[in-house]
Design goal:
binds NADP nicotinamide-adenine-dinucleotide phosphate; seven-stranded parallel beta sheet; about 15% strand; UDP-galactose 4-epimerase, domain 1; alpha/beta; Rossmann fold; two-stranded parallel ribbon; disordered C terminus
């Protein structure tokens, strides 16, 4: 049975990948800068001395690259060398539907991973539903002001549940047959942020609205939330791309890979608002 090192194992997708793998009897080793118990191992992208010990005995890796790092390749390449040396045969890389392949930046990672191990799959999910119901800056806006602020205009997005991404990742990590080199992953429908706000209004019983702003205002809001200026501008540019229709699509990947339908925003939001979840508490409109 596989031993999978789950990078970002305490994060939105990695924690769900870990749960998926363990439910199927695989060994999932959670990589974290702050291990707090069995099944966790210290791993820090910026401390290469932590890489080989984390990889010891692993046969596969779920790879979440260093978050917010504009040029991650210099950190990821030596890690992949160490993975190959440790006997890792399969890597599933979390990328994004919004990140095209490129010679540098985060767009360089798919080619790097493909060149490093025999079996690799790049996940290209659309925007996570959890951005709206978790700790993300958008969810904070809903909690505090009852509004979602974006520069996406009327553009639509195939929002996807992080649990569905994790299920696709889990299959790609465990299935006997290697998966295709890429999976473009969306939820079941493409929604504008105004559509999403209407769903959240319905589910929560409190008004949630979408407020469209300019790319400049969106950049400033990201920066004010602590995101570095250049990354804030990049995120705002992704909003502008959405306004132009870049994410207006749905794929059958979740159903094809997992054998079940992808979850709707309504289902995910309803679960998050249950007493056990309780992730968002919208403020009053206009608050
Ligand atoms: N949000 C979206 O809509 C969306 C859409 C498509 C793609 N994506 C991609 O998803 C990725 C983020 O994945 P996620 O949401 O699953 O993760 P996440 O919830 O943002 O969690 C980040 C993880 O990275 C770990 N981490 C942070 N700094 C680290 C370091 N220096 N060394 C080792 N680990 C470190 C954290 O672990 P510890 O704190 O425990 O160390 C944590 O588990 C991004 O690359 C983004 O491009 C996001």
């Amino acid at each position: 049975m596989s031993t999978v090192l789950v990078l970002g194992g305490t994060g939105t997708t990695g924690s769900r990948v870990t749960a998926f793998l363990r439910a199927r009897g695989a060994t999932a080793r959670v990589a974290t800068r702050s291990p707090s118990g069995p099944g966790q191992v210290r791993f820090d992208w910026t401390d290469p001395a932590t890489h080989a010990p984390a990889l010891d005995g692993a046969t596969a890796v779920y790879l979440v690259a260093p978050i917010g790092e504009a040029e991650p390749a210099p950190l990821v390449a030596p890690f992949l060398d160490a993975a190959r040396t440790a006997g890792v045969r399969r890597v599933v890389l979390l990328s994004s539907s919004a990140v095209p392949d490129a010679d540098d930046g985060v767009g360089a990672l798919p080619a790097l991973v493909r060149g490093a191990v025999g079996e690799s799959t790049v996940l290209r999910p659309s925007w996570f539903m959890q951005n709206l119901v978790g700790d993300h800056v958008l969810a904070a806006g809903i909690r505090e002001h009852g509004e979602i602020v974006t520069a996406t205009g009327d553009g639509r997005v195939g929002f996807v549940d992080a649990g569905d991404i994790a299920a696709v990742a889990g299959h790609a990590l465990l299935d006997a047959e290697p998966h295709p080199s890429e999976h473009l992953i969306t939820g079941p429908e493409a929604l504008s942020y105004a559509d999403a706000a209407a769903v959240l209004t319905d589910v929560t019983g409190s008004p949630v609205r979408h407020r469209a702003v300019t790319a400049e205002e969106r950049t400033a809001r990201f920066a004010a939330s602590g995101i570095p200026d250049d990354f804030a501008a990049l995120l705002a540019a992704l909003d502008v791309a959405i306004a132009g229709g870049s994410e207006d699509r749905v794929t059958d990947t979740v159903a094809r890979v997992t054998g079940r339908a992808p979850r709707t925003l309504r289902e995910v939001a309803t679960e998050a608002l249950s007493p056990a979840g309780g992730e968002i508490r919208p403020g009053r409109a206009g608050a």
